[in-house]
Write a structure and sequence with these properties.
Helix content is 66%, strand content 0%. It is mainly alpha-helical. The longest helix is centred in the N-terminal third of the chain and has 27 residues.
Length: 153
């Protein structure tokens, strides 16, 4: 598989996993306060709704905030799980890595600069402020539009 094809497969793969993990891990499992994933639903969503997308936790160093540490740890773990593929598909893994870094950057920026989010991540804003059971894509609404989890307004 060519380098370009590998990368072109890795990047959208991250978008699909982003949607699935957001819905099934962070929400379905995360609604249970005893779940490892509860930080997302009970801490992050609570703040984003209360403050109109703003989440004060993003102004603390991630290693000093349990919710943020779980987010960063989850993203690092998601990347590390794919590292064995680098021997055969290094550009696929590079696409995954770039997608994960993009996710972290945009997600953090959307909760420290809500005006930016309203302009650039409308899908994510709708998820937090309109319907937390839809709009699973944080960095893109494409997968949501394909599978029907982004209702037409």
């Amino acid at each position: 598989m060519s380098k370009l094809a590998q990368f072109a497969a890795g990047y959208p793969y991250v978008k699909a996993v982003e949607n699935l993990a957001h819905e099934y891990l962070l929400h379905d499992l995360g609604k249970d306060k005893n779940s490892l994933w509860s930080f997302h639903f009970h801490d992050h969503h609570k703040a984003a709704v209360k403050y109109g997308m703003f989440d004060p936790a993003y102004f603390e160093p991630w290693w000093l905030n349990a919710s943020r540490a779980k987010e960063v740890g989850s993203l690092a773990g998601a990347f590390m799980v794919h590292l064995p593929l680098t021997t055969k598909y290094p550009y696929f893994v590079a696409g995954i890595g770039i997608g994960i870094v993009e996710y972290y950057y945009k997600h953090k920026k959307s909760h420290t600069n809500p005006e930016w989010a309203f302009e650039h991540l409308q899908n994510h804003v709708k998820h937090h402020l309109l319907d937390q059971d839809k709009y699973w894509g944080v960095t893109s609404g494409l997968i949501d539009r394909i599978v029907g989890t982004a209702p037409k307004m």
